[in-house]
Amino acid sequence: MSEQRPVEPVQPAQPDQSLMPAPTEPFGPATAPPPGWMPPPPPAPVPMWNRIAAYLVLIAVIAAAAGAGIGWSLARATNPQTAQSNTPQSPIVAATPNTGSTNGNTTADAIAARVDPAIVDINTTIGTSAAAGTGMIISSSGEILTNNHVVTGSTSITVTVQGRSQTYSAHVVGVDISQDVALIQVDQTVSGLPTVKFANSSSLKVGDTVVAIGNALGQGGTPHATQGQITDLDQTITASTGGNSSETLNGMIQSDALIYEGDSGGALVNTAGQVVGMITAGQAQGFRSAASDVGYAIPSNTALDIVNRIRAHDQSPDLTYKQQGYMGVQVQTLDSAGAAQLGVNVSAGAVVTAVVPGSPAANAGIPRYAVITSVGGQAVTSTDTLGTAVKSHQPGDQVSVTWVTSSGTHTATVTLAGVNP
């Protein structure tokens, strides 16, 4: 078992997601935003072991044994996407499940030992913060399956392969946002990597023994493994980070194998060490819980179908391959009180509450407390319109940005970067 340590909640900011990914909120409910226009201070640094991509979520089970509870998505973090490359790959096929152990030892550690070499730690940069999750190697050349929420919105991604001292950079090949599935690829030329073996998930039954394997609490090292049983199938859950965004996932596997923040994207395997699902979310009684004995996984058949379509460069609208434009500012909508306090002569716009060091906005000289009023010729009257304006451009585009401060009106050309949608 991983040690549970008390963690203080991180003060969340109020960003527009297309501009700068929000800091994570590991264990506590969001602190109420400051009144009116007043921008919050930049988030304070927190110890690395505390920066786990773990959000509080509300889990609503809608399928057969309906119920509800307070929970968390196990790893919500991110990396920029680049367009897919190379030629289409041969599809990965799930094998017939082997329900017995290959060596007669069915302890969690024995089962996990056959899978561990193909389980990777994923660490991402999100604005000025960081987060951690898990992935599964699916090809010897460094293709990795993980959750979309592990890599969404980040500006860098690194992968640690078990037994290798080198840390690899990686990029996102493609994602299915609605199904929370992502395929990422190691940037360096690699070969001979161990891969997970998939089993057909359609034959799973309630009561089957499973082992959950992942980067528990984002601590790295040998993957953490816990054993349990499948407690339900074909579940529908709605996961919310507590803000305005939520996602509904169907056909989920429910199990009682203990899972932790950081396990998202990890493997749910049968007693033969074959992957039958990808760990995605957990349900916990209490906002400060560090673990959950009610977990949900995306069936292997669902994940493989999406991955094979991405590898084949399928252009269906549910698959995304492109990055979104990124400025690197945290903003909130200006109101009349805010305009008076800031001493600006405009009544609408997006107030910059923080600027990511080294970001396109920082390089262009946009300061904190500036009120952005125009991007690429599009009027900005709120955080929403700013997000729309930025998203209408591609990474690398040079756009004219106008902002207002107490000293007057300023305009600069900003070269947009990119983040995973």
Structure description:
- The chain has a six-stranded antiparallel β-barrel.
- Strand 20 and strand 21 form a beta hairpin.
- It contains six helices and 24 strands.
- It has helices at residues 108-113, 148-151, 300-311, 336-342, 360-363, 383-391, and strands at 55-61, 67-73, 119-126, 129-137, 143-146, 156-161, 167-176, 181-186, 209-214, 224-240, 246-255, 259-260, 267-269, 275-283, 291-292, 294-299, 324-326, 329-333, 350-355, 371-375, 378-379, 398-405, 408-415, 417-419.
- It folds into two domains: 48-311, Beta Barrel (Thrombin, subunit H), CATH 2.40.10; 324-419, Pdz3 Domain (Roll), CATH 2.30.42.10.
- The longest helix has 12 residues, at 300-311.
- The chain is mostly beta strands.
- The relative contact order is 0.18.
- Residues 1-86 and 285-289 have low confidence and may be disordered.
CATH classification class of the largest domain: Mainly Beta
Shape: elongated
Number of domains: 2
CATH topology of the largest domain: Thrombin, subunit H
* Counted beta strands: 24
Strand content: 35-45%
Class per helix and strand makeup: mainly beta
Helical amount: under 10%
Strand order within the widest beta sheet:
9-10-11-16-14-13
Question: What is the mean pLDDT?
Answer: 79
Distance between the termini: 34 Å
Identify low-pLDDT runs: 1-86, 285-289
| Sheet having the most strands | 6 strands, antiparallel, barrel
